[in-house]
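Q: What residues go here?
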């Protein structure tokens, strides 16, 4: 018998998430290529150095728009409630898979909510500093240097967060990735990971 499935993400949510995901990876690769001469070869994936130089800010603009739409779609579910704060206090038990010691999560656990807020803040940082660097003729050298440093440090932070995010969404918790592919999860997955959300959402 096939498992009962629950709808988790709409088509629009998935498209927007993947626009953000793919553009972010392209931005990381082209940005890394500019930052480290030994990684310049990465630009060959987008047609060489000059093409990467033109593409990076344009893809960045698409990333910014995608992130804004994603923020507007999801922000209502991302505020921490009392149980989320307890969840943060019990995060070491979550990491050790001691589920009986972890307060039940709603649609998103507190870690996912923190990830959402951190990536949203980083998104603002990337867009603001990126715009300064895109139109350098309007700004002073000191401001541009600060923008360059913040853009770079933010990208390293975003890359580390992304590695953790992809690991948790794929290898660490089987059954999660499909929520961003066909938009559905099994009822068993929902009861295990998001008991306060699973409720009576089954659509057979
Ligand atoms: C590129 C590879 C990526 C993969 C494989 C991936 C995978 C996933 C999956 C499977 C989910 C659903 C989790 C669930 O059902 O609970 C998800 C949710 C989410 N993704 Fe991604 N994602 C990627 C990139 C990104 C990027 C670049 C961002 C933002 C900059 C992002 C932001 C989010 C947010 C905010 C959520 C909802 C909260 C959460 O589940 O953490 N994702 N992602």
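A:
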């Amino acid at each position: 018998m096939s498992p009962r499935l629950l709808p988790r993400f709409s088509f629009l949510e998935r498209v927007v998430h993947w626009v953000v995901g793919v553009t972010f990876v392209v931005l990381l690769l082209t940005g890394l290529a500019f930052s480290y001469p030994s990684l310049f070869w990465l630009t060959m994936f987008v047609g060489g150095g000059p093409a990467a130089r033109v593409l990076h800010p344009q893809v960045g603009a698409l990333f910014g728009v995608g992130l804004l739409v994603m923020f507007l779609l999801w922000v209502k579910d991302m505020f921490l409630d009392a149980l989320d704060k307890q969840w943060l206090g019990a995060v070491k038990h979550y990491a050790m898979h001691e589920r009986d010691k972890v307060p039940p999560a709603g649609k998103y656990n507190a870690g996912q909510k923190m990830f959402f807020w951190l990536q949203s803040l980083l998104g603002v940082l990337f867009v603001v500093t990126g715009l300064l660097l895109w139109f350098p003729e309007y700004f002073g050298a000191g401001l541009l240097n600060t923008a360059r440093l913040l853009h770079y440090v933010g990208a390293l932070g975003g890359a580390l967060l992304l590695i953790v995010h992809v690991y948790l969404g794929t290898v660490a918790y089987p059954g999660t990735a499909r929520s961003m592919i066909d938009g559905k999860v099994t009822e068993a997955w929902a009861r295990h990971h998001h008991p306060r959300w699973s409720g009576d959402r089954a659509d057979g």
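A: Context that may help when evaluating the design: DSSP finds eight helices and two strands in the chain. The CA atoms of residues 25 and 159 lie 9 Å apart.
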